[in-house]
């Protein structure tokens, strides 16, 4: 009886999709923001149809994605924290960084707006107000691109958030979606990328509190992991993906991704300083 | 999976993505149980039937391992299978094979510990008779496993329940890759994270229904076995 | 490798002592069990009857002294069988239990069905072949255990108080079977604390008290004129302390 079950299991494994990595495929370490926004579900089938390459996206926070890439567990890394990406390059783990697209961060908050900042275009002043009024705030706390941006903004506001935080500041160590869920459940403010926010369904009483500040700019970059450090990296296929992303065709596809008629990401591969 | 459709709609239209996710969940968990049974049943029988120094310590350890935290196992397997790790060249990270491996580690102690208890109890009962009938050691083990098969099946179902329900290990070693390593539990985690709670709950109901079906199937096998018992 | 003797009889106990910790269960027992009519072990509870049977079966070793079967020590229990006081039914059908015993005794598979029918007829359970064994009554289970023991065609059959928990009708059924078995030439060695049963079945008596063989010999002689005070007290039905 036991052996029958084993045979069924083996047959199932053998007859269905291969259990180990396929030939024409790459692993891309990317962020939960890009996953949760739905961009990949939109983009990857188009790429596969054109090239036959299966892109397997492992979605983690930016920090974790770069760690995965450092270990050689991915072929391409696609994140949104320029400083961290450049360190990755200078440590020799990446070949070259290509800017791909940008969007912006938005400060999400409860409709009741306890910090009195709704409609502001000044993110720094808003963060100061949140701290002064001890309004509830959710931080991703996971070394993601969003978290890195959040810390940088606190710094611009002259606040050392690690030392100056109080009970109003909750660091949850999870993805953007989880952070939005937490903010929705506890009527708190949270910094989010616009893409994830537009795709997010559990809004509750949350609305956009602050947007449009130039300092909320959020740039995405893509890199091939250095085959010199990790010989198993799929150089050609990975580069094919990168080339397509920055090509006019790929950039058009990115621009074409909309939710409720609103565009989430703005291609800018043509701006080399981005 | 369209995120603006309900779980019910997906089931009724036999949405191919949903079917693929269900199929992967079953393949991963059932395979893990199968391998764990191959290791755990003989291991449990061996510990039940032999006397050796430190045996009680081994029994305590085996029972304790039933409570291995899935996320810790996931992390350990990840480090082993990472391209920077000792088994990196196998290229198994972020594949269903890695998920099966991690779940096998979680399930084997459950099956071994429960099998040990079942077989030890049965041996206490059968000891005199089997010794008097001059039954050899291998034949003894076969008899105990066969006669104890209903309790052992429950041990397998306990293992399956554990495997089907966990997400911590497989999300780390599998990467929750769309269309490749996404299972019921990791899909539920993802939809929750995207804020689509109704879909997540719907998928949860599907998962529970599947576990019930597997248990019902085992129950039917047992009834058929009882009817055929000679 | 020693060749097993053709028969395991006579079974000789040479100054055998069995201790369990500080307790002496059998004390310097020297005894011979010869082929022929049934040998019945009698004595109060705790006298050591069960231990003696287990020794003779070869299930336990003596702490001191030796046990031989037809002069050979360490003979495996191929030609011997035992029915325990509370026999354990395997989780199978009645026929399945006998089949298991046949397989354990290396009886060829072609002979199984015929043998099962024969044995079930002998012990009076012919219609219960497919019943789960654990659902039989106490008396039926005792008889199935008998059938199981006989499956291997033993030369010696040990019975440990086979009718102790049975009603009179079942007791008679079992005693009739024992007589039939003995009539076929199988040596029966039976323990009982029922004096009437001993009188009905015994050819030889071994009377045990506190781990020692107090008297042994022809049954009729024993009951007519017991030699020792303990035997007299026991036969008179009084408590023997």
Write up what this structure looks like.
- With 274 residues, chain A is of the alpha/beta class.
- Chain A has two domains: 2-102 and 219-267, Periplasmic binding protein-like II (D-Maltodextrin-Binding Protein, domain 2, 3-Layer(aba) Sandwich); 104-216, Periplasmic binding protein-like II (D-Maltodextrin-Binding Protein, domain 2, 3-Layer(aba) Sandwich), CATH 3.40.190.10.
- Chain A has helices at 2-15, 32-36, 39-51, 62-70, 82-90, 123-132, 145-156, 161-164, 176-186, 194-199, 235-246, 248-255; strands spanning 25-31, 54-60, 76-79, 94-110, 137-139, 169-171, 189-193, 206-210, 217-225, 258-259, 262-263, 266-267.
- The model of chain A is unreliable at 17-21 (pLDDT under 50).
- In chain B, helix 2 (16-49) packs across helix 7 and helix 5 crosses helix 8.
- Chain B has 230 residues and is mainly alpha-helical.
- Chain C is α/β, with parallel strands linked by helices and 241 residues long.
- In chain C, the strands form two sheets. In chain C, strands 6-7-8-3-9-10 form a six-stranded mixed sheet, sandwiched between helices. Chain C has a four-stranded antiparallel sheet with strand order 2-1-4-5, with helices on one face.
- In chain C, helix 3 packs across helix 4.
- In chain C, 44% of the residues are buried.
- The chains are: A alpha/beta (274), B mainly alpha (230), C alpha/beta (241).
- The interface between A and B is large, with 45 and 41 residues.
Helix/strand layout:
The complex is a heterotrimer of chains A (274), B (230) and C (241).
Chain A: H1 2-15, E1 25-31, H2 32-36, H3 39-51, E2 54-60, H4 62-70, E3 76-79, H5 82-90, E4 94-110, H6 123-132, E5 137-139, H7 145-156, H8 161-164, E6 169-171, H9 176-186, E7 189-193, H10 194-199, E8 206-210, E9 217-225, H11 235-246, H12 248-255, E10 258-259, E11 262-263, E12 266-267
Parallel strand pairs in A: 1-2, 1-3, 5-6, 5-7
Antiparallel strand pairs in A: 3-9, 4-7, 4-8, 4-9, 4-12, 10-11
Chain B: H1 7-12, H2 16-49, H3 55-65, H4 70-81, H5 96-132, H6 137-147, H7 149-165, H8 168-174, H9 184-193, H10 197-228
Helix pairs in contact in B: 2-5, 2-7, 3-5, 4-5, 4-8, 5-6, 5-7, 5-8, 7-10, 9-10
Chain C: E1 11-20, E2 23-33, E3 39-42, H1 49-57, E4 64-69, E5 72-73, E6 80-83, H2 94-104, H3 112-123, H4 138-150, E7 156-160, H5 168-183, E8 187-191, H6 195-201, E9 204-209, E10 212-218, H7 219-224, H8 229-235
Parallel strand pairs in C: 3-8, 3-9, 6-7, 7-8
Antiparallel strand pairs in C: 1-2, 1-4, 4-5, 9-10
Helix pairs in contact in C: 2-3, 2-4, 3-4
């Amino acid at each position: 009886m036991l052996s029958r079950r084993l045979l069924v299991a083996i047959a199932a494994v053998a007859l269905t999709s291969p259990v180990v990595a396929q030939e024409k495929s790459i692993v891309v370490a990317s962020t939960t923001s890009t996953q949760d926004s739905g961009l990949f579900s939109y983009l990857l089938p188009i790429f596969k149809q054109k090239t036959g390459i299966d892109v397997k996206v492992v979605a983690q926070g930016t920090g974790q994605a770069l760690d995965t890439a450092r270990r050689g567990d991915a072929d391409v890394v696609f994140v949104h924290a320029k400083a961290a990406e450049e360190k990755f390059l200078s440590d020799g783990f990446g070949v070259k960084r290509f800017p791909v697209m940008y969007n912006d961060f938005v400060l999400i908050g409860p409709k009741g707006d306890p910090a009195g900042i709704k409609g502001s275009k000044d993110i720094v002043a808003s963060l100061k107000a949140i701290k002064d009024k001890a309004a509830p705030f959710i931080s991703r706390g996971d070394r993601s691109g969003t978290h890195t941006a959040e810390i940088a903004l606190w710094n611009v506001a002259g606040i050392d958030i690690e030392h100056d935080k109080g009970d109003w500041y909750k660091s949850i160590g999870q993805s953007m979606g989880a952070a939005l869920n937490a903010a929705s459940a506890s009527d708190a403010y949270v910094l989010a990328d616009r893409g994830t926010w537009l795709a997010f369904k559990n809004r509750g009483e949350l609305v956009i509190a602050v947007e449009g500040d130039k300092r909320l700019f959020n740039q995405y970059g893509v890199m091939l992991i250095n085959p010199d450090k990790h010989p198993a990296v799929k150089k050609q296929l990975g580069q094919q993906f990168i080339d397509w992303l920055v090509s006019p065709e790929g950039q058009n596809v990115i621009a074409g991704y909309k939710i409720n008629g609103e565009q989430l990401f703005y291609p800018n591969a043509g701006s080399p300083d981005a | 999976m369209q995120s603006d459709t309900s779980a019910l709609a997906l089931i009724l239209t036999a949405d191919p993505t949903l079917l693929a996710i269900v199929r992967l969940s079953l393949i991963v968990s059932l395979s893990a149980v199968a391998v764990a049974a191959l290791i755990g049943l003989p291991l449990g029988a061996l510990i039940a039937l032999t006397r050796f120094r430190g045996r009680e310590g081994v029994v305590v350890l085996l029972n304790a391992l039933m409570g291995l935290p899935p996320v810790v196992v996931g992390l350990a397997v990840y480090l082993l299978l990472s391209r920077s790790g000792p088994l990196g060249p196998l290229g198994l990270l972020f594949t269903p094979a890695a998920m099966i491996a991690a779940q096998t580690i979680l399930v084997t102690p459950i099956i071994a510990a429960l099998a040990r208890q079942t077989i030890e109890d049965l041996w206490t009962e059968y000891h005199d008779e089997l010794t008097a009938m001059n039954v050899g050691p291998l034949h003894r083990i076969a008899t105990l496993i066969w006669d104890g098969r209903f309790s052992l099946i429950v041990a397998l179902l306990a293992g399956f329940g554990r495997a089907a329900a966990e997400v911590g290990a497989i999300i780390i070693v599998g990467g929750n890759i769309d269309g490749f390593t996404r299972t019921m539990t990791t899909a539920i985690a993802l939809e929750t994270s995207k804020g689509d709670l109704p879909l997540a709950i719907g998928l949860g109901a599907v998962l529970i229904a599947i576990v019930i079906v597997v248990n019902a199937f085992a129950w039917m096998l047992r009834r058929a076995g009882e009817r055929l018992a000679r | 490798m020693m060749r097993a003797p053709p028969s395991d009889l006579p079974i000789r106990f040479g100054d055998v002592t069995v201790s369990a910790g500080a307790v002496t269960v059998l004390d310097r027992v020297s005894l011979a069990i010869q082929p022929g009519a049934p040998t019945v072990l009698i004595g109060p509870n705790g006298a050591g009857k069960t231990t003696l049977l287990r020794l003779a079966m070869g299930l336990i070793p003596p702490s001191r002294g030796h046990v031989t079967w037809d002069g050979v020590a360490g003979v495996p229990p191929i030609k011997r069988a035992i029915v325990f006081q509370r026999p354990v039914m395997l989780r199978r059908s009645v026929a399945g239990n006998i089949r298991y015993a046949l397989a354990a005794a290396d009886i060829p598979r072609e002979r199984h069905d015929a043998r099962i029918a024969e044995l079930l007829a002998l012990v009076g359970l012919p219609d219960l072949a497919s019943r789960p064994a654990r659902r039989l009554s106490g008396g039926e289970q005792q008889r199935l255990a008998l059938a199981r023991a006989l499956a291997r065609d033993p030369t010696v059959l040990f019975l440990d108080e086979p009718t102790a928990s049975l009603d009179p009708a079942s007791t008679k059924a079992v005693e009739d079977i024992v007589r039939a078995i003995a009539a076929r030439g199988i040596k029966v060695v039976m323990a009982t604390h029922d004096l009437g049963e001993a009188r009905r079945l015994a050819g030889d008596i071994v009377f045990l008290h506190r781990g020692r063989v107090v008297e042994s010999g022809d049954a009729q002689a024993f009951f007519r004129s017991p030699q020792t005070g303990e035997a007299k007290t026991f036969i008179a039905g009084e408590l023997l302390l």
